[in-house]
Amino acid sequence: METTSIELQSSRDGFGVPVINGIYLHSIYNPKKEAETFASNHADAIAQKDHILVLGLGFGYHIDAVANFAARFHKNYKIVVIEPNQQLVDLFKANRTFEDKNIEIISSEDVNGIYADINFARLLIKKPAIIKLDTAFNINKDFFTKFLTYKASSQAKDYKKALSNQASNIWGDFDGSFHDRINEIKSQKVVTRREDFLLLALSEITRKDNEVSQ
Amino acid sequence: MKKVLFTLLRSETDTIKAARIIGAFRENNPHHEVSILTYEDIKGPATIIKGVSQIYSINRQELTSILNSDIYSDALALDQFTESIEELRTTEWIQ
Questions:
Q1: What is the pTM of this model?
Q2: What is the pLDDT of residue B95?
Q3: N or C: fewer beta carbons within 10 Å in chain B?
Q4: Which residues of A touch B (CB under 8 A)?
């Protein structure tokens, strides 16, 4: 949904509540109490996982509450918030801040870009708990649906430009998938390109039986 | 100073066994600089071998997770792998 209007209203107990296209992101009566209920509804997931992905920033009350729960269960934890609406992030930053330094906001509408970040990949590899703020999710349903069903292209022609210079030198001029590249190298009678040995090494060390199990 | 790279890519047990070999090598070649290449998940024993100037490690679990999943671009694995071995590639080792 495109953001046609965004405004900040005050709840009855005096806290800011963003309203996007007429939709209140939090309770207009008591957003902090609502946030505590939100976190307690996800207590099991928070207790089990020390990495948490929250879909939707809102005005952060639910994230503060999740962080409070996480701190009870874990010595070290990390909370990453995905929010595609930059206007909302700007509004949040102008009015509030997260005191908990374990919370990070990723603000982007570019799903490809989010998944292309190695730090985000590292978070996902840890299989985080995923928690969504329903109001924010519904406002940005197209984005979050794309985000949750994302698949990266396996074809090098789609990601070659994103490779570092060194990786590009090793990869060479090939547009197909990694799998096809390895098969092509293996089909050669003699491997003459020095860098191809590195690709074979990468293939060997990333056999599925090495995968992290958590 | 000549540089020597020991590749310890099998298991922690092999790394422990290699400690004696590396020790003996260091004794016979005091002017050689010894480095080790290992995997991140088994590098523990390598860190306590005396006289090793550098330990290079590859995070095979992370690379495996990235390369075997539909949601990550293979570019991430290629970049991370390349970054792990870049210094190794540009260093002149005794052959």
A1: 0.85
A2: 80
A3: C
A4: 115-116, 118, 121-122, 124-125, 150-154, 156, 158-160, 162-164, 166-167, 170-171, 177-178, 198, 202, 205-208, 210-212
